[in-house]
Amino acid sequence: MQPRFGIRTKLLLSILAILLISYSTLIYSTMKTMSASLRTEVDRNLDTNLTYARSQYLDRAKVAKYSLLQPATSRLVQERLTAKDRAWLDDRLKVVHQVLPYLDFLLVLDGKKRIVAGADTGSDGEELYIPGVLDQALAGKRVVNSTEILPAAVLCQAGAKRYCEQESNAEALVNTVVVPVLGGDGSILGCFVAGEILNNHATLPSDLQEVSGSDVEVSITQRDLRIASSLPRTLRDTSTLSPRVIDVLERGEVYRGEARIGSRDYETVIDPILNSRGEFVGSISVAVATERFSETKRENLENILASAFIGILCSFGLAFLASRHLTGPLRQLAASARKIEQGDLDQRVEGHQDDEVGVLASSFNKMVQALRERDSIINKKTSDLQELNEQLERMVDDRTSALVMEMGRLEAVLTSLAEAVVVTDLNNRVVLFNPAAQQLFELVPHRVVGQPIEQVCELVGFTPLLERIRELAQPERGGGTKEELTVKGKRLYVYLSSLTDEFGNFAGIVLSIRDVTVEQQVDRMKTEFISTVSHELKTPLTSIKGSLQLLLTRSKWLTDTERQLLTVCFRNTQRLIRLISEILDISGIESGGMVFKFKPVSIGELTVYAVEEIKSYAMGRDITIVNTVGEHLPRVYGDSDRLIQVITNLLSNAVKFSPEGKVVMISAEQEGNYVVVSVADKGRVIQWSDRDKLFKKFQQIECQERGKVGGTGLGLAICKEIVERHHGRIFYTAAQERGNTFSFTVPIIGETDAKGQDSHSR
Questions:
Q1: What percent of the chain is predicted at pLDDT more than 90?
Q2: Which of 189, 423, 525, 570 could hold 432 in an S-S bridge, CB 3.0 to 4.6 Å?
Q3: Is-above-0.85 flag for pTM?
């Protein structure tokens, strides 16, 4: 088949596309970089000129401030001001005005803001009302420089005569400086007040423009009206700031944007001027003409486009010549490949070029030779593959029969299981319902197999398990769980586990159901029997104990051997009574017959009582008990007798399993809403294999130093039941090197007592 486009055409088109994309990207990135650079230059130019204009605007006020500070601190001036010597103060002000001729008014006020002296003012003794700036200077006893909008009446009063003839509502923007005069004791004697009316200096921005150049326009506004600008007078008098710009400036923010003034485009930045009270009174703006930047951008774009056009033409011409040189040998290779496709494996390509095309021709010839050799090998291997296929089919048959046999064994195991088993597929439809399940639920398989597990659960009364079954079907919620249900009077343990395939995906659920109704009945009968027997044995044993104790205390005629035998009998009787008491305690707790008298108690007092009970036993083994429980702990809500029983049991175990001469420590601390009581010993750490026996009935742990220690194995089980009835928990912690710590928690007052648990509720 003849190709629609040859290699040469594709090569030329590819080179052309690459050139267009490359130059387009280059032009775009260059223009973007150039625009950003010009934008940065414009912003920098604006910021520089605004900073310069702002400094020039403020410099006059600073000069006035520092010029007035010297007379304000002069003792002679203070004395003349106190004496209200107007003539002397007027002469002093005229000297200052000669130094600062740009000031439009210069006054001296007393402490009550009344005019004492002033250049060109006849308002002697009148109060000067300039709100904000005068109050701040006199109250703070500091120099205040602020730009204020003052009415014509105040300006006339201050000595600006031209404003005496203007309307009463006329205003002017005044750069005001107030310098307080302080007495030797720091009291306010008066102040100097100087002001420059910016409306009278319309050429101030023009002076700044002489430094910045003709492309920079500087303006000062009183609110939205320009009062001083380097613009021509016709533009200056007719131009005002737009409401949108005023909105930004009134918030105290700097406005940046584009503006068209006259016939020229400008980038402008406007800085708000605020008075002493933070109110917007005017602005100072700098505008930079963008003609020069636009012209630079246009010239650069023209140069880049011209260079790109010339580069594309030259590159395309070189690509055309190179493609003609390269595609000739490739056409020969294509013709030989078509003949090989038709089955002619005797083709050869003559390659004389000492480049990649020559290497390709040599590789092509080697490929043809390899194809001929491989063709002969394939024919030989085909027969071998047929034989292997027959062997594979025989192996599949053998594995299939073995799998059928294994499935038969599995089915026999499931059939003979005493526990009911239900298995679902990945769609949660039942695929297995063994005979034990049929007998337990009295259902035949055809009513269950193939049905959704939800429908089967509703049929057999397993509705409470539906939520857990849905959770197991989620990949991240897999695993297994155990649930307890009562269905049709039967107590059932249900074990649920999810199945996964070889890729870890959900493949179904296995439910194993065990009927424990009979087991629980037997366990209850056993508990009742033990409780009854214990009650029956306790009374005669108590009588025996009393009789033995009487014989030991009052029988003086006993021989040593008889007294020793009676002592052994008395000790074993005590042991039997203790064993029966513990059995009765655990039975009473489990059956709910044990009465708990809950009330506020102090852990500190309970630990003292418990230590006193166990002290003699500890002294017999040369073990010291250290009680660090303080009285600062909050009171807890519990049964004092039962809590003392818990602490006594823990101390007894600690003393029993500690080597002689060691220390047993009891401590307590508050953690959140609970008090944690801990008993720590220095015995050998309990092995991991024995820790599961802790807190279980009739389980004892052997001590490696002392062998098997006597006891019933009920102490920790009783402690666990008592602590849990107090809504706490008991737990074990092993030390890093040597020692064991048993701890339990009891809620403080205000936590469990709100639940209404009292001694008569159990």
A1: 9
A2: 423
A3: no
